[in-house]
Amino acid sequence: MKTIKLQNLYFDPFIDKDEIAAIVKYLAWQVKSDLSKNEIPLFVGILNGCFLFAADFIRAYEGDCEVSFVKLASYSGTKSTDEVKYLLGINEDLTGRTVIILEDIIDTGATLQEIYTIFRNKNVKELKVVTLFFKPEVFKKELPINYIGKSIEDKFIVGYGLDYNGLGRNYPSIYQLTTKPKMKNIVLFGPPGAGKGTQADLLKEKYQLVHISTGDVFRFNIKNETELGKLAKKYIDAGDLVPDEVTIDMLKAEVEKNNDTNGIIFDGFPRTASQATALDEFLSEKGLQVDAMIALEVHEDLLVERIFGRGKTSGRSDDTDEEKIRNRFNEYNTKTAILKDFYEAQNKYFGINGVGSIDEITTRISNVFETL
Predict the structure, then answer these.
(1) How far is the C-alpha of 199 from the C-alpha of 219, rounded, in Å?
(2) pTM of whole model > 0.85?
(3) Mean pLDDT along residues 307-336
(4) 3-class secondary-structure state, position 114
(5) Distance between alpha carbon 326 and the CA centroid of its chain, in Å?
């Protein structure tokens, strides 16, 4: 389970679907145990929120029963109001029947008050109330609740039928309102053949991050002939290095596109101390920062052997030339050494053992990421 966003609000995982299933099953067992042997109850679900709860409860109920629904509405955004709208009633003759209300959540009790009012003159034999969730801190009414699945604190929740402005009902688990998560931005480094690309893809998926690769950004801008792309191509065609300010402006544009994300993986940037400084200054203006430089550490001889093996099928001539491979390592080590000093001075450098299975390496990186 991951943090979810609905419109402008964020929600953390709170109660998973397995716990919900266990609660529902136990509530159904309790109700069945308390009824007479041959009694056929009428279960009345309170829409819209309880439709998932009602469906699972009825499936878990081991006995004959009838089902109906009443539609009430009391929420506006994330707040429960004392004004309950009665939108849809029931037409069944309830005389002498045992009626059991199925509610997804009871908080202030305003909706529960309306339920008791609705059934006051229905001549029912007995009226009982089952609620999946209950907020005792804010319950204001002196009204009976016969069965409570789980008492929770007074925080807004969504999922399993519960919504925020109509959204979130379809999630199988429950999520609780939280503050906007802090963006976690990392610079990911790894020598040739260390599997940095694979790890970037896995981290992106696992933590819902944005992966910004300098190479991809350059190719996109040049292909789409943006102003920055044209400028970069001018330097490249002349055989010159693209100035830092052009590269940084491209990266700034990518960051601006992804203001509302859990974090960014910077891949291939920064490469120099001046670029790292420029990145820090830009992110600082936005109230952000680079939280860590994570570098995969693998012995060079092992990687050379790995790249040689890859060269047999990659079709790349530089994967079969040891001198070229060693030159790539020299370039990487020189750049990494500079940035290692830069981020170590900020206590943000993390060297990760890059030898092992893909899952093992992902776990090592995750252990660092989750402490940031």
Answers:
(1) 22
(2) no
(3) 69
(4) helix
(5) 41
